[in-house]
Design brief:
Blueprint: H1 22-35, H2 39-52, H3 56-73
Helix pairs in contact: 1-2, 1-3, 2-3
């Protein structure tokens, strides 16, 4: 991997995710509140259930929520701006 010369924090690992809308963020926060450390597993289970029903859009939505939960749960050093 080539280092980005414009990255002010080259040693900091980052998780990136896309937030489609406010409902996605609210779903992630609700799962985190209701399920604690198991929130991403719950989102994964919901994604699997959607896939098993043939609901591709639901599967993609829950996978996105799972990634968002992992990003929000990742440990951070210092302040986040």
């Amino acid at each position: 991997m080539i280092a980005d010369p414009f990255d002010p924090f080259p040693d900091e690992s980052r998780l990136a995710c896309y937030i489609a809308d406010r409902a996605t963020l609210e779903a992630a926060v609700t799962l985190m509140s209701d399920h604690g450390n198991l929130a991403s597993l719950e989102a994964a289970a919901r994604a699997d259930a959607s896939r098993n029903r043939g609901n591709v859009a639901g599967f993609c939505r829950w996978r996105q929520i799972e990634r968002l939960i992992e990003t929000l749960s990742a440990p951070r050093d210092g302040t986040l701006h």
